[in-house]
C-alpha cells in the first residue's frame, strides 16, 4: 500500500511539473483590456461568423481576379478567422493581405509556414539555413537571435503566426518528409534549438507553433500522401518524440500543431490520425501535458487526415480538441459540415463559442485590435536588412562541420607546396565554393555532372593524378560514389565538402574512409558553400557538430574544432561596422566615376581579420567595354614600395643581413666614392637621404627621340631580355647605366624629401644580400605562402592581359597604351622590377600582405617574418617628419595628410601615382584598400585628389565603426 501511495505521489509530482500556466504571450498583455475587446467583438458575431473564426484557409499568392474573388468569398461568406499563404513574392502577398484584411469584419490571423523563415515561402527574402543545418550550431543564443529576426520580418509582412519550430526528432534515416526540417536526432538538442527559435519568435511578438505533435521524426511515409504509422511504446514516445514538446509546453509558448499519424500506443482505434484523436489532442496534449495555448491541425487537405466523407475531418478535429482548422480540403463544404454538426448536436455550441473567444484573445495578443495595413513602399528593403544578411552568414559560418581531419590537414597550410585541384560533382556552373577557393589559392577546377560521358570522366580522373591535393565538392545526391573516386582517395590527399543532407554521406562511405578530411556543408546555398571553403582554408574556424548520425560513419555530436588562420569573408556587422554607414563609401566611389576621376576602381575594407567589403566599380576604360571585377589586377605604382620592396627589406633584416644604421654604400660599392657614401638605410626608408625625387633613366636609352639600337630592340632575344613594353626590349646591362646615373645625381640636404631613388637602392641592396632577384624572393617567401597568386611583377608572364587594368596611353616614351607593363618609367627600364614600383595586385591579394603585417608576420599558420621585425618597421616613425620605416603615415599639426582626418596616428600605409592607396590601422585592426587607374588615359587627370575620394572613403569607414558599450 505504501509503495502504491509513493508511486501515485511520484506520478502527481511529474504531472505537476508538466502542467503549464497559460502561454506567456497571453498573460503578458493587459487582461482586462483583452477580455473587454474579445467580448465586444464576440458579441457582434453571429453563429455563422463565430464558426468561421475557427477556419484558416490556404491562399494562392496571385493577383488574378479569379483568385481574389475566391479569397474574398472565404472572407465574406465563410467569415474565416485566418489565412495561410502559398509560395509567392512579398509584394504580392502584402497586397493580398491588405485587401483581405480590409474586407474582413474581424481582422484575420495571418500565418506563415516558415520553418526556416520567410524564404521558405517568399522569394526575394533572406535565405536562412534549414533546421538540420541549424542543429549543428552550438550557440543557442544565435538561434534565438534568428527567431527574433524572423519575427521582425513577419511583422513587416503583417504575419502573426509562424508554424515553427519543427520539434520532430528525426531518428529515421529514410524519413521522406521531415529530414532536414528537424534540428536533429537528440531529443534534448532538438528541444534546446526549438525553444531558442520559439523564444526569439515570441519575444518579437510572433506566435510560435511547435509541430508535428506528438512527433513525426521516425516515419518512413509522408503524411501528405498517406497516414504514417508509429509503433513505438509509450515509454519510447515519452523519452524521444514527446520530450521536446514537453519542454516547449513548460516554457509557456503559444501554439502547437497536431500531426496526421497513427500511433497505437496513444490511441488504438485503427487508422485514426492523432490530429483527430481526442485521446491525443485533449487527453495527452491538453490534459496530461497541460498545454493551454492554441491548437492547430496540420493541413487537413493532406491525405493523412483521411477526408472521410462519412465523418468530416474538420468535425472530428474540433471534437478532438483542436482550436483552428488549418487548410481544410474543401473550405466551403467543410464549413457547411461543421455548421450541420453544431445544428445536429454533434458539436456543442459552447465548444465553438469557447474556441472563438480563445482565438479572439490571440488576435488581441497579435495586435489586431489596432490593425494597420502593410506599408508597401520600401517593403523589400525593410525585409532584407544588413542585420539579416549578417545573421544568415553567421548561422552558416557556425554550422559548417569538420567530421574528419587526419594529420590536422584542415585548415590547409603551406599552400606554396601543394598543387591543388577542385573536383565538383553535380555542379555544372562555377559555384560559390569554387569562387571562394580562388580567393585563397590558385587551383584548377574540374566538374562531373550527370550528363558527363564516361570518356570525359575518365579524362578528368587522369588529369587529377597530377595534383597533390584534391578538394571534392559534392553538390548532388544523384551521382553515386565511383571506383575512380575511391582510387583517387587512396592515392591523393582528398578533402571532401558535402553540400547535401548528411545521410547521403553513407553513399560515399568507402572513399570517405580513405579521405584525409571531410567537411559537412549541409546545403548547397551560396553561403554554405562560401563558409565551407573558408573552413578548409582557415578563413573561419570549424565550430559545428553533426546533429544526426550517419550510419557506419559518424555519430551525432561529431565535430572537430579548428582555428581561424587566414582572412575570412563576412558581413560588416560581424566586426562592429555599421553596414548602412559603410555602404556610403559606394556613393563616393560612384561620384568619382561620374566625375571621370577614374574609369573604375576596387574598394576593400577588412577588420579584425575579416574582409567585410570587397567591391569593384566601373570599367577598365571609359568605353565601358570591360567591367572591373574583384579579380581584376591593378598597377600599384608607389604602393609597391610598402607592399613589395619593404617585405624583401624586412626579410633581409630578419636574416641579419644589415642594420638600419649601416651605410648603403657598404652594399652598393659603386656609391663608396660618391657624395652618397654616407647615406644610411634608415635615411632611405625615412626618405631623408637627400636624393632627388626621381631620375629619368630612359633618356640614356634614347637619342633624338628614338631608342638606341645598341640598347633597345623591337624583338626579344638572348641579348635583349628586359621587356619594357610591346615591341620594346632592353639589354639588362642597362642596369649599370642606372647605377651610374644614381651615383652622379644631385644630393640635397638630409631632410624629408620623397624619392623613388631611395627604394631603387634598397632593392639593389636586398638582391645583393639575399643573392636572388627581388621578385623571386618575394614570390617564394611571401606571395606563394600567402596564396596571393594575383600579386606579381611583370604580370603578363603569369596571366592574360584581360585580367589587367590598363594605365596610361604613353605618348612620350613607349607610344602605346600601357597594359600589363609597369606604368612608372624608372621601373620599366629596370625590366619591370624596381624598388619604387612595378608590383601588380588586386585588393583581395593585397589584403593578405597587409594582414601579415597586422598579424606580426604570421599568416595561414606560418611565421613568414619575425614579430619583432614587423613591429619595428610598422611602428617606427621619423622624429622629424611623418614618414615611417618605408611606410607613409598621417600628417599632424595642420599639414596636408595622405590619410583621412579620422585616421589614428598609428596608421601606416602608402599611396600610388596610378590612383592607389592602402592604409593599415593596428589600433582598430583595420585595413583599407583603394585601387584605381586614374592615369587612364592621361596622368594629367588629378580629380581623384581634388575630390578627396580616397580620404573621404577612409573617413566614412571610421564613421561606420560602432562604439562598443562598456
UniProtKB/TrEMBL annotation:
Keyword Transcription attributed: no
Keywords: Glycosidase, Hydrolase, Signal
Signal sequence segment: 1-19
Signal is among the record's keywords: yes
SUPFAM superfamilies documented for this protein: (Trans)glycosidases, Beta-D-glucan exohydrolase, C-terminal domain, beta-lactamase/transpeptidase-like
Domain Glycoside hydrolase family 3 N-terminal, chain residue ranges per copy: 47-361
Reactions accelerated catalytically: Hydrolysis of terminal non-reducing N-acetyl-D-hexosamine residues in N-acetyl-beta-D-hexosaminides
Domain Beta-lactamase-related: 588-942
InterPro entries cross-referenced by the UniProt entry: Beta-lactam-related, Beta-lactam/transpept-like, GH, Glyco_hydro_3_C_sf, Glyco_hydro_3_N, Glyco_hydro_3_N_sf, NagZ_Beta-hexosaminidase
UniProt EC number: 3.2.1.52
Molecular-function GO terms, alphabetical: hydrolase activity
Similarity remark: Belongs to the glycosyl hydrolase 3 family.
PANTHER family recorded: BETA-HEXOSAMINIDASE (PTHR30480:SF13), BETA-HEXOSAMINIDASE-RELATED (PTHR30480)
Protein name (database record): beta-N-acetylhexosaminidase
Organism: Parabacteroides faecalis
Phylogenetic classification of the source organism: Bacteria, Pseudomonadati, Bacteroidota, Bacteroidia, Bacteroidales
